[in-house]
Amino acid sequence: MRRTIFLATLSALSCQSYQFEPVAPVTLVVSDEVFELAPVLKPNVMLAVDRSGSMGGQLDAACSSTCPTRLSELKQAVASFTALADDRVRLGLTTFPREPGPTLTGAEASCQPANDVRVALPVASRVDDQQASQANRASASQVNAAVQALQAAGGTPTGATLAFLGTRSELRASDFRNDFVLLLTDGLPNCNENNPNDFMQSASACRCQTGGGDCSGNDVRRRGCLDADATVEQVQALHRLGIKTIVVGFGADTNQVDARAVLEQLARAGGVPRTCASDGDCGAGSACTSGRCDRWAFQASNRVELEQVLTTVLSGLTPATCTRALPDRPFTSGAVSLLVDGARVARGPETWSLSDDQRSVTLAPAFCEANHGAQLHLRVAGSP
């Protein structure tokens, strides 16, 4: 429920004369949200890992042949990530492109999207008990093992792979869990045989994405072109199904201006903004504005940065059970009130606190546990 209140300065008539500075009216929107306090179930996270041929390239192009590749560095980062994720999220894995059939050749063979998962998400469940925790740990271990076995080859059929993930029943189960696709890629999508752009008709519109930058062959004149629009549409389709997408670009190529713009489009369509407390939380080239980074897509140039990004992603996927986002940003920090079963609760270290960015409230652990099942009422007076 939202109510609008107008506050204005009133002047009183008297025998004396005073000089007042004019004050513009301030509009406050009062929002009320009522919810039942319940545990937050661990989210489903399907990793979609790019294993295209470019992943076999050296991370530093100027380095000698003994230097690590993008894929070798990604493997180490994923090992650290799955160890941290362990029982905090429910992991699954798909990779792209898939291995081609024996009869396929050329670009068609290189552009086969995923049509199965390497590691399925744990069986759908509406509880996070000990048995579920064991299953989560097992899946995290399987994801790591599968990633360590990957070899780089092929193109980047990102859009068609995301379309496949939209058909997976475990990402659409009625299990009261949040569902995410975590896309790890070192390049831009291509491989769409129905791409409206044709290199032979317009090289500039095609924006060729093959390794050599040549899309003049019959089998790559469309498949080799940038497939941004169709891939964004697939991310949007996932979002409509309730599946959000987080985008992580890895390697120097994804830090180029054009690449950053395309990955940002995908991230925005994915529906998961990056939260922040300062500009330093957002990385180079991005600022923190009102608790959100200007850029939603993540970018990492090396293993250390990728590990940091994945740790940040994991923290954002597993919010504290007793944290609740505010329906509106408050006009002042004192414009937030909390009622439990109709009784107002004073703010304090043993009850609840307002986050530094004023976008959420967190209940103290003991207070939260004592009030599971209670009806909570958040009231916020916020600026429009």
Q: What does this protein structure show overall?
A:
- This protein has 384 residues and is an alpha/beta fold.
- The chain has two domains: 98 residues, no CATH class; 240 residues, von Willebrand factor, type A domain (Rossmann fold, 3-Layer(aba) Sandwich).
- It has nine helices and 15 strands.
- The strands form four sheets. Strands 1-2-15-11-12 form a five-stranded antiparallel β-sheet, with no helix packed on it.
- A hairpin with a 2-residue loop joins strand 11 and strand 12.
- Helix 1 runs parallel beside helix 8.
- The radius of gyration is 25 Å and the shape is elongated.
- The N terminus is likely disordered.
Low-confidence stretches are 2-15, 23-28
Largest sheet: 5 strands, antiparallel
The CATH C-level name of the largest domain is: Alpha Beta
Rounded to the nearest angstrom, the distance between the terminal CA atoms is 15 Å
Layout of strands and helices, then pairs:
Blueprint: E1 2-7, E2 26-36, E3 44-50, H1 70-85, E4 90-96, H2 106-110, H3 130-148, H4 158-165, E5 179-185, H5 203-206, H6 228-240, E6 243-250, H7 257-270, E7 288-289, E8 292-293, E9 298-300, H8 303-317, E10 323-325, E11 336-340, E12 343-345, E13 352-354, E14 360-363, H9 365-370, E15 375-382
Parallel strand pairs: 3-4, 3-5, 5-6, 6-9
Antiparallel strand pairs: 1-2, 2-15, 7-8, 10-14, 11-12, 11-15, 13-14
